[in-house]
Amino acid sequence: MRRFWIFNHYATTPQTGPLLRHFYFAEYLKEKDIETTVFAANELHQTGGSVDTHGKPYLRTEEEGVPFVFVKTSKYQGNGLSRVKNMVSFFMGLLRISGGYAKTYGRPDVIMGSSAHPLTSIAGILTARRFGVPAIVEVRDLWPEAIFSVGKVKMNSLAGRLLSAGEKWMYVHADAIVFTKEGDVDHIKEMGWDMDHGGKIDLQKCHYVNNGVKLTDYYESIGKNVLADPELEDDSFKVVYTGTVRPVNNVGNLLDTAKLLADHKDIRFLIFGGGSELEKLKKRVVDEKIENVSFKGFVEKKYIPYILSRSSVNVLNYSQSNYNWSRGNSSNKLFEYMASGKPIISTVKMGYCILDKYQCGLSLEECTPQALAAQILKLHDLPPKAYEQMARNAQEGAKDFDFSVLTERLYRVIESVRRD
Known about the structure:
This protein is an alpha/beta fold and 420 residues long. It has 16 helices and 14 strands. Strand 12, helix 12 and strand 13 form a beta-alpha-beta unit.
């Protein structure tokens, strides 16, 4: 059995959190005689909790047959200096433990370092060199472009140039690059780093393996985890949003849209999720007498498949300006929405648009309450056969993003870099 190591700072098991991309890959790769070990930080990103390593540099666990290594890292809060220190401590921890871990559990045949931040991918390349094995870089978020887009660092500043140089080094020295958005390879072309523009990066080593959904678990959850809520069971036309309620999510736009549709008594907006703006927006509903909106608050993730299955349309509520959408969308939420078998509305128009490809939803050219209200009415007024076809398209399209299919694509990348 070959050994494949994945470094991902924020990966979790089903017991420790919701970030399961690499856990699912490990499950399916085992069927191909590849033992996959996932290395993650013991400080858990989304939950604020931690895994106790009992004072040791790492803790090895095994859940559902998947080896998971939690590397001891420094604690952090928010997005300030303590988080940067946490990133560095994970990087250093990987370099420190890899030799001893390999002596105990066996050397890897291939290593994949996965962003968000590039230090993890760099650790993957350096560790792969140490063992003389291929290195795959997986890019789940384009850093430092994501930092540039929100204005935290200027691209042409000294810090910006250093970050870009580090990113370029990572791509040049990887044996293969895996992007999670179809259009992310365009970034390499735009930077002039590919061979056609005089650079060193061969685009033949670039691959695309999107995020997705484990459909067997998803459909099992619909029947198993039913959320008792009368508004999910009635005959209204339900516009559903699931996610956090923060300024960046612009949930207030849904309230403004709901006000425009107040005369359509059968249309209701159901908003599931918690966040810093929740109380403020609930107050708006009361003060402005918005009677067609219900805030449901935070719900456990296990209930999301059932909630989405009871909707009439699911809304991807994004900001037009805070992200470069020209390269596509790889959010897990999109594929969960598709799996529900209900039409989708996106508040941004994206490049490489999955909604257009599968004819399973509508996108806004501009993110205004008026535009969103018009698209909701368009779906509301669709003839039943047309609505049902769009719903079927969503569910059928989700099959292309099932983790069994995505793992097959990753397997082909692993095979492409093998050194026998």
